[in-house]
Specification:
Blueprint: H1 8-11, E1 35-37, E2 42-44, H2 50-54, E3 63-64, E4 84-86, E5 91-93, H3 95-99, E6 107-108, H4 110-118, H5 121-218, H6 223-235, H7 254-270, E7 273-277, H8 285-291, E8 295-303, E9 314-321, E10 331-335, H9 343-354, E11 358-361, E12 369-375, H10 380-388, E13 396-404, E14 424-433, E15 437-438, H11 442-457
Helix pairs in contact: 5-6, 5-8, 9-11
């Protein structure tokens, strides 16, 4: 189809369409150009190009098909068509540039310059294909990493949910025990007070009677009778009731109060956390976090260093350690040792400071590793046997024997001598007391280290 056969609708195509060249002579609605003049450096529609075809003054002008790239071929310095290639500066230039800035340079025709550059096309194409393949592999790697990341997030959500559930249950249980203890203590003290009141009221009634009898005796005129009766009367009063009437209002021991205050501080800190990425600035987020050869994904609470107390924030950090597949943190189920005046909780807290360990409430149906606390209440061998009967055969057990004593030097026994079960990986002795809670003794420190090492290995 010739340019003269182009319909009016096609000529009025908007300038926003790719490849469409507008007539630069049209005013108002622009028509589509049918030719570009390389001499005038302007594109014309069918109407405005007629002067070039009919007027002898334009005989020497070069008309070509509409060139959409014409504006890019005009020299910005001299407003002339760039028709040659400077090999020295590797750029297209006009003839005036050749005479001025490039007169000492190696000048080529566009055809010769194209021929040289054409030789670089295969290498460039190979580079494009190579980078496309690298990007495809990177996309696969990122998708795999993202899938692993989502798995980690699901696991962490489950871990934190179970941890908080355990805390809620533990706190609710402790609350129930404390309230029960207070209520029982209140009832005992109230009974004591009521008994004392009855005794005092009864004694008061008796004293009133004695007072009446004494008043009658003082009115007698028989001195001999008075002297014979009064000493016996006075002796019959007996001793004054000296029973203690004070009520002990110190319901809590210092250790319990300290533990509750410590728990409150931890909860206050936990409510003020924020998420923080610990990877270096500029690193690739998912790939660096999931596939660096020195890391393992962890969510743990830690204080930010160097922040004033008034601005201190707790941080949930994302750290990644350890080569190879993503390693999970030790998952330990806990049973026993509840009534050890907070010694068991302190033992678990110190273990957690050594390494983030995920604790769960004991469930015999899914347990793999159990941290069994055994409180010594009667005979050591009997107590150990009773505690071990709670765990099914085939479950790995770390046995912590809790000895109640005010003095660490009083315990010299090695409880492992009383344990013959093969499922027990380790037996350690620990000391506690109602006044001191968990002892800061070398025996307890050694027990913590041994338990820590066994947990990591399993």
């Amino acid at each position: 189809m010739s340019s003269n056969a182009i319909s009016m609708s096609e000529r009025r195509l908007g300038s926003g369409m790719p490849g469409v060249v507008e007539c630069q002579e049209c005013t108002g609605s622009k028509q589509m150009a049918v030719n570009s003049c390389l001499t005038c450096l302007i594109s014309f529609c069918e109407i405005h190009v007629q002067s070039h075809k009919e007027n002898e003054a334009f005989v020497g002008h070069r008309l070509v098909a509409p060139d959409v790239n014409l504006p890019q071929k005009i020299c910005s310095k001299h407003h002339m068509l760039m028709e040659v290639f400077c090999r020295t500066d590797q750029e297209s230039i006009c003839y005036k540039c050749v005479c001025l800035e490039h007169k000492t340079h190696k000048i080529l025709t566009p055809e010769a310059g194209r021929s040289e550059k054409q030789e670089e096309v295969p290498e460039t194409m190979q580079e494009i294909q190579k980078r496309m393949k690298m990007n495809e592999e990177k996309v696969k790697e990122i998708k795999t990493a993202l899938s692993e990341f989502k798995t980690i997030v699901e696991e962490k959500n489950k871990e934190y949910e179970e941890t908080f559930d355990f805390l809620f249950q533990s706190i609710a249980r402790k609350k129930k025990e404390v309230i029960k203890s207070i209520t029982e203590y209140e009832q005992r003290e109230e009974e004591k007070v009521k008994d004392l009141i009855k005794k005092l009221e009864k004694e008061t009634d008796e004293l009133k009677m004695r007072g009446t009898e004494l008043e009658k005796l003082t009115k007698t005129d028989d001195h001999i009778h008075f002297l014979q009766t009064f000493p016996a009367f006075r002796a019959s009063l007996g001793e004054r009731n000296t029973e203690d009437t004070a009520i002990n209002i110190n319901l809590f021991q210092d250790q319990l109060i300290n533990n509750l205050n410590y728990l409150k501080k931890l909860l206050d800190k936990l409510s003020n956390f924020k998420f923080e990425e610990t990877t270096d600035p500029g690193s690739s987020h998912i790939l660096e976090n999931l596939h660096q050869p020195t890391a393992m994904k962890e969510l743990k609470i830690a204080e930010r260093n160097g922040v004033p107390d008034s601005e201190e924030k707790d941080v949930i950090k994302h750290d990644y350690e350890g080569p190879g597949p993503l390693r999970k943190y030790p998952n330990v189920q806990v049973i026993g040792g509840e009534n050890t005046f907070g010694a068991r909780e302190e033992f678990l807290r110190r273990l957690d400071e050594m390494k983030s360990i995920r604790y769960q409430t004991f469930s015999d149906t899914k347990s793999k590793l159990v941290l069994l606390f055994c409180s010594v209440v009667s005979r050591l061998g009997k107590d150990i046997s009773h505690a071990l009967r709670q765990i099914s055969a085939g479950t790995k057990i770390i046995l912590v024997i809790m000895h109640h004593t005010p003095d660490p030097r009083l315990i010299l026994v090695d409880s492992s001598k009383f344990v013959e079960e093969k499922d027990v990986l380790l037996t350690v002795d620990c000391l506690f007391h109602e006044q001191r809670g968990f002892h800061n003794s070398s025996l307890n420190q050694e027990a913590l280290k041994k338990v820590f090492n066994v947990i990591l290995k399993n």
